[in-house]
Design goal:
The complex is a heterodimer of chains A (111) and B (239). Chain A is mainly alpha-helical and 111 residues long. In chain A, strands 1-2 form a two-stranded antiparallel sheet. Chain A is extended, with a radius of gyration of 20 Å. By secondary structure, chain B is an all-alpha fold. Chain B contains twelve helices and no strands. The radius of gyration of chain B is 19 Å and the shape is globular. The two termini of chain B are 14 Å apart. The chains are: A mainly alpha (111), B mainly alpha (239). Chains A and B meet through helix 1, helix 2, helix 3, helix 4 and helix 5 of A and helix 1, helix 2, helix 3, helix 4 and helix 5 of B.
Chain lengths: 111, 239
């Protein structure tokens, strides 16, 4: 059983604040206002950049280093998920197909 | 609504399992489910929490992942401004991608007539209530199930795959592909930075590169709420 950490709980409460802040951004204040142009344009790229920045190291790195072998279940699971996405779209299918390949290699072959 | 509810529940179930199998405690995972209520931000925060990144880096990352909601909120403003602030905040907190999309499909224009406003409010409240109950319920089941699954199975990887699928559904323009490639590469190259700062460096690098390319005349991306809703539609009912 993992330990509960007070600092983590505080961070989670902070994240709840981030949810409220972003979902209510333009109706927090009663006064009408607009974002500066660069910020508005940046909105277009920041979400996908944030996701890619989190995911890519999770797939291609182990303990802070690029993986040195192709025998890693994550690579094949990712490939299967990507293939599903371009075939059928849909996030759920991406997860299911990716996990099927990942688990087969990870549990079956120990990759 | 009932057509998409099972997919939404599966997503909650998976997030619940991923949180616990990545190393969060049951109490932390339950708090996150109920309070944060934003699946992609939750999944993005997990590896950072587990790595012991400082709170401000985690909050900044969650903020960036959630920026699509800022675009939605600009659109929802005209529908909600007649409400008192606390009701606006509660409504905003509960309005996920899915509720937003269904709501603006059903009510393409805001109204000034009180009965129409009430009808819109009722629809949104019902929709958000169902989504929240569905999400919390399925996540709690996932958290409970996770305790019976060995960590060595590596089910936390499902969270990475979920974010992967969401990222692909956000790819609506060439510049967004560039943003993803720049950010992914930068996050690996800068991995040795302390405090998980590689994530923020990568986001900043991607945004700066894309704004510069836009300035240099590459086709600017679609950024109307409609286009955003379309992108959300592909993201599989992500809260």
């Amino acid at each position: 059983m993992n330990q509960t950490d007070l600092w983590t709980v505080a961070t989670i409460v902070g994240m709840a604040g981030v949810t409220v802040l972003t979902r209510c951004f333009f109706f927090l204040s009663s006064k009408p206002w607009v974002l500066p142009d660069w910020a508005r344009r940046g909105l277009d790229y920041a979400p996908i950049a944030a996701l890619a920045a989190v995911i890519v190291p999770e797939i291609v790195m182990t303990k802070g280093h690029l993986i040195g072998t192709w025998q890693d279940a994550r690579l094949f699971g990712t490939a299967a998920g990507v293939a599903w996405f371009f075939w059928r779209r849909g996030v759920l299918g991406t997860i299911v197909s990716g996990m099927a390949v990942y688990l087969a290699l990870h549990l079956g072959l120990g990759w | 609504m009932f057509g998409v509810a099972p997919g939404f529940a599966a997503w909650g179930l998976m997030t619940g399992v991923a949180m616990v199998k990545s190393g969060m405690s049951v109490i932390e995972a339950m708090l996150m489910t109920v309070l944060v209520y934003a699946g992609s931000a939750q999944l993005a925060a997990i590896p950072l929490l587990v790595a012991g990144a400082p709170a401000w880096v985690i909050l900044a990352t969650a903020f960036c992942v959630n920026l699509r909601f800022v675009v939605f909120s600009a659109h929802l403003r005209d529908y909600l401004m007649h409400l008192p602030r606390w009701q606006r905040l509660l409504t905003g907190f509960l309005t996920t991608d899915l509720s937003y999309m269904l709501f603006v499909q059903r009510f393409p224009a805001p109204s000034n007539a009180p009965d129409q406003q009430l009808a819109q409010q009722a629809y949104l409240a019902g929709n958000c209530g169902l989504c929240w109950g569905n999400w919390v319920g399925s996540s709690l089941v996932g958290i409970a199930l996770a305790n019976f699954i060995p960590t060595a199975w590596g089910l936390g990887f499902a969270g990475t795959l979920a974010l992967l699928g969401i990222s692909f559904s956000l790819v609506t323009t060439r510049l967004r592909i560039i943003a993803a490639v720049v950010a992914g590469t930068a996050a690996v190259v800068a991995f040795a930075l302390p405090l998980k700062l590689n994530i923020l460096v990568a986001i900043a690098a991607a945004v700066v590169v894309c704004l510069m390319l836009e300035g240099a005349g590459l086709r600017p991306a679609a950024r109307t709420p409609k286009a955003e809703a379309g992108a959300g539609a592909g993201s599989g009912n992500v809260p």
